[in-house]
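2024-03-11 09:14:02 INFO worker-7 job=invfold-0412 stage=load source=structure_tokens
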């Protein structure tokens, strides 16, 4: 239940805090979740696997382009992992108390249906649902999404004809790019890369010819709104080092991909088989209702056709450019998978690596590839398109990626390109206003999780005087514009400053799962985490060095103590050293130099160089 309901309730019966139970069952739920996704794709049904059924031109399976296969637990529209944790909570309590009958209040229909297979259920305010209704909605939304995608691509194809470009050829290194939210014109007219930062410059200093392999995505971020598509394309045409992927697509290629519904029909053939439905039965639960709608939606919306076009365009671009090295920054996300698949078809000798773009922890499921069934493609010969190696930010990242089955020589600790500014430094004293203590809430990219935090903090401060709450939105996800945040707009100020300005003005940072929290700790700002009844994708799960809270009462007591003596909660130097080394590497400022040296060493030695950690 919401923190306010938990706080205000007059509980005469036994009361169990679900947020605390979730921490106990999460590891088991994670194992079940990862096994479920690996099993669905790799288990033969009627003589072949779903991954084999979804193969098409290019010798790679479109299974790897379906959103559920990404295992993005933070994604708002994929609540499978979070709901599985809640199911495990119910099971744990029921087993402890010897319960066989459960009454449910306010749960989603999918949750109720999955739970009903294990318990005698009395639903209040919820009910099981007919499977045909969500399927019809998924098909409707999916077809509309595909049509909208087709209209956008037809416009883009026509506009590209109006702005012909003569890109430079013969690049040694191609970088993943998304025009113009990851790379675009800077204030001085030069290209500004938000992810690779100064790496292109370091490579050029070493005599390497660098280009950007960019997809045109003019509406991905909030700041991109309200612009004409032709102006976005015209800006890209002024930079010969920017290779727009869409220039390699013909009208026939676009129409063939968008109008192809074969993969949806292939999925429905599996969907009718009882043996396929049995794959969703895990640990006494039937998880079929949690995933079926998502699988159907991913098969009929624009996901497959969009990523097929990325793969096809990457293949053609690499064939034209003949690069020696392709570097991405989205690790195992769907877009990068499409680039890996296309790049290997376009150039056999091409080496493909990725540079870790953000913090990872042991519960961040979208960075996980099971070595046997996913990374190596057993038993059906349909492996996940993946990089040859990864430049990781710190020791924690190294352990996680080696756990995915990568040999140690293919996981190199270099520091993070986006975090070269990170260092242990003293505080800049906040500017005081009418409030005595300023709490900065760091929003991530999941509405339910961050609204849970906002609710808890806003209640906890009610009986603590002289506290002002501010919220910093994620750059690519505005929690403050979501419907769930409406009730907080008079209670919580939404910041508009830079990251440094927001940190400088904070006495205390509270977060759920943002990498911004590690930076705050290194600056000497007390940093706390709010835990909800779901996943925990913060590095502090693996580095338990900060206070965590799952109860409003506990949070209030801590705030009362903090107001009396804020300095008591500052991290010690040894804790800061640990976080720096584990999350950002021993010398974050040298990340671009380190990665540039490794790439140059690799391409000049014809791929035979021994890759070693440089931190």
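2024-03-11 09:14:09 INFO worker-7 stage=emit residues=615
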């Amino acid at each position: 239940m919401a923190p306010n309901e938990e706080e205000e309730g007059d509980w005469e019966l036994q009361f169990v805090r679900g947020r605390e139970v979730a921490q106990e069952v999460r590891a088991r739920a994670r194992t079940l979740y990862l096994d479920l996704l690996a099993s669905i794709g790799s288990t033969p049904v009627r003589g072949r696997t779903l991954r084999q059924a979804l193969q098409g031109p290019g010798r790679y399976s479109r299974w790897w382009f379906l959103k559920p296969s990404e295992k993005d637990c933070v994604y708002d529209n994929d609540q499978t992992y979070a709901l599985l944790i809640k199911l495990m909570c119910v099971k744990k309590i029921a087993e402890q108390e010897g319960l066989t009958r459960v009454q449910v209040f306010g749960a989603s229909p999918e949750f109720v249906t999955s739970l009903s297979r294990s318990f005698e259920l009395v639903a209040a305010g919820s009910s099981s649902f007919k499977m045909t209704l969500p399927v019809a909605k998924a098909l409707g939304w999916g077809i509309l999404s595909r049509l909208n995608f087709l209209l956008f691509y037809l416009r883009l194809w026509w506009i590209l004809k109006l702005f012909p470009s003569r890109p430079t050829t013969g690049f040694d290194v191609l970088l993943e790019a998304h025009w113009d939210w990851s790379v675009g014109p800077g204030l001085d007219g030069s290209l500004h890369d938000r992810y690779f930062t100064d790496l292109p410059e370091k490579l050029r200093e070493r005599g390497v010819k660098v280009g950007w392999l960019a997809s045109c995505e003019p509406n991905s971020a909030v700041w991109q709104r309200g612009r004409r598509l032709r102006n976005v394309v015209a800006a890209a045409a002024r930079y010969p080092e920017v290779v727009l992927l869409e220039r390699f697509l013909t009208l026939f290629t676009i129409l063939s991909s968008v109008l192809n519904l074969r993969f949806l029909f292939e999925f429905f053939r599996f969907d009718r088989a009882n043996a396929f439905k049995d794959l969703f039965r895990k640990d006494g639960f039937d998880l079929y209702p949690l995933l079926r709608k998502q699988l159907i939606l991913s098969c009929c919306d624009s996901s497959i056709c969009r990523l097929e076009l990325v793969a096809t365009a990457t293949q053609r671009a690499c064939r034209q450019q003949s690069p020696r090295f392709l570097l991405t920054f989205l690790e195992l996300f769907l877009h990068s998978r499409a680039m890996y698949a296309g790049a290997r078809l376009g150039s056999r000798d091409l080496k493909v690596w990725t540079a870790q773009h953000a913090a990872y922890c042991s519960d961040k499921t979208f960075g996980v590839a099971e070595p046997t069934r996913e990374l190596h493609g057993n038993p059906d010969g349909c492996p996940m398109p993946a990089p040859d190696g990864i430049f990781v930010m710190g020791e924690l990242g190294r352990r996680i990626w080696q756990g995915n089955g990568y040999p140690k020589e293919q996981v190199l600790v270099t520091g993070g390109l986006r975090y070269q500014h990170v260092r242990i430094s003293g505080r800049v004293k906040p500017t005081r206003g009418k409030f005595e203590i300023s709490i900065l809430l760091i929003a991530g990219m999941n509405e339910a999780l961050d609204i849970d935090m906002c609710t808890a903090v806003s209640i906890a401060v009610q009986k603590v005087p002289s506290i002002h709450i501010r919220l910093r939105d994620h750059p690519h996800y505005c929690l403050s514009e979501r419907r769930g945040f409406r009730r907080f707009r008079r209670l919580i100020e939404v910041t508009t400053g830079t990251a440094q300005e927001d940190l400088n003005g904070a006495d205390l940072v509270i977060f759920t799962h943002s990498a911004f929290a590690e930076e705050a700790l290194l600056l000497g700002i007390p940093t706390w985490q709010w835990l909800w009844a779901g996943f925990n994708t913060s590095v502090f799960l693996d580095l338990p060095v900060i206070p965590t809270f799952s109860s409003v009462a506990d949070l209030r007591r801590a705030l009362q103590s903090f107001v009396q003596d804020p300095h008591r909660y500052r991290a010690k130097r040894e804790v800061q050293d640990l976080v720096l080394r584990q999350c950002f590497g021993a010398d974050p400022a040298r990340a671009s130099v380190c990665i540039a040296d490794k790439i140059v060493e690799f391409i000049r030695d014809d791929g035979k160089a021994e890759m070693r950690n440089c931190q």
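2024-03-11 09:14:09 INFO worker-7 stage=report msg="The chain has 23 helices and 19 strands."
2024-03-11 09:14:10 INFO worker-7 job finished
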